[in-house]
Amino acid sequence: xxxxxxxxxxxxLQKSSPEGLSRxxxxxxxxxxxxxxxxxxxxxxxxxxxxxxxxxxAKVLVVGAGSGGIMALARLRSALxxxxxxxxxxxxxHLYQPGQVFMAAGLYTIDDVVKDNKDFIADxxxxxxxxxxxxxxxxxxxxxxxxxxxxxxxxxVATGIINxxxxxxxxxxxxxxxxxxxxxxxxxxxxxxxxxxxxTWEWFEALKKASSSGEKPTVIYTQPNTAIxxxxxxxxxxxxxxxxxxxxxxxxxYVLATNAGKLFSIPEIEDSLAxxxxxxxxxxxxxxxxLTSIDxxxxxxxxxETYEEKGAYDEDLEEYxxxxxxxMVDMKYDFIHIVPPMGPPKAVIDSKLGWQKGSAxxxxxxxxxTLQHRRYQNIFGIGDVCGxxxxxxxxxxxxxxxxxxxxxxxxxxxxxxxxxxxxxTVCPLKTEYGEIIMAEFNYEGLxxxxxxxxxAEPRVFWWIFDLYMLKPxxxxxxxxxxx
Length: 483
Known about the structure:
By secondary structure, this protein is of the alpha/beta class. Helices cover about 25% and strands about 25% of the residues. The chain has helices spanning about 5-15, 25-30, 45, 65-80, 100-105, 110-115, 195-210, 235-245, 265-275, 345-350, 395-410, 460-475, and strands spanning about 60-65, 85-90, 95, 115, 125-130, 130-135, 140-145, 150, 155, 160-165, 180, 185-190, 195, 220-225, 255-260, 285, 290-295, 300-315, 320-330, 335, 340-345, 380, 425-430, 435-440, 445. Strands 5-2-1-9-22 form a five-stranded parallel sheet, with helices on one face. Strands 11-20-14-15-16 form a five-stranded parallel sheet. Strands 6-7-8 form a three-stranded antiparallel sheet. The longest helix is centred in the last third of the chain and has 19 residues, at about 395-410.
């Protein structure tokens, strides 16, 4: 299997007109051919393409033009040639979000990770450059911020996820990139800004400069108590920044302060991450720590730590009660990388579309397999906004695509919904420059695309794939609805 494309192939892909590049040519140029067997892209995703088409006329609305929205749009245009399709989204710039980590590592530039959304939204699609302010599913319509009412027969909600730096007391977006603070998530596509990778690369360089002065700086990497897109990103930044220093014989005192209780939910991956930590200077793991406030001027981060304390002895059960407690912990730092709390858009939270209770409250209430709304059967969800157990990654959205469109067409035809999302999620955990643990899993556990490769083993193979091949596949295949 050819893994690393030649320089000529990469340049050809980057320069070619997307409209003039066929799926066959793109597959040949990338070097994966008809097998399409790398990174969870099995041929089965295309197997039922013909059966997932309908000649019916209907109004179909897509809300959101990120990865999920564009992938859904491309597939819908193919599956529903007679449909009247509308997409609502203000962002004219499209961000290849996985590339932000490579930007942070100094390996990509902004030109590698952004393109015009107009390149992916065809002229026969009605593009309303606005945001949805109100969802009215009882009347099959939405209302935009400017007051425009848009009706639909079927709708795909692809609004994505919202960063909330403002939920951390004392912090604002304007603080990111100053006073030792960084965040690879500093992007606002509605405003046409994608600064996370750039400011984090500058942060890498500032950290190296401080480390070379003779004193080892203290560096904190945070992970909040909310769901986030790409849950492995905090550790990616930890490992890459540590390796950036190590290459010059430098080091720091690293602190991973995460609200999670462990490094990873899957034991095999967690063990591999723990081994990777030993390659570097002291890495202290502060589990069950959620960043609540920050003193930007004095460089003090305050965390709420959740811990357990032994209570009274129960004679009947012959065991001690366990009492959950909380306390506030201050940590001084020289540098800090912040992953903000995240949540669904307010329009979804305030509507009848969100889960009404429990830990999923506010997230889009869809069935975890069919991705159809549990109460409104003409509505489907794709991407980060979905309130399901797994799936806030670009790899998940790619697997959502054929499920959403196949089931939407089936619902339109009055047929049984047969497509099922298995929870596929992928997290390319970069443990150093040149190696990745490709953590692929689903609702059942580990789900490696290439079974004979230990998914917990860091590999150069996956680094080459992620750095050189995934980006052209994203732009030329995934955004065209071909994968």
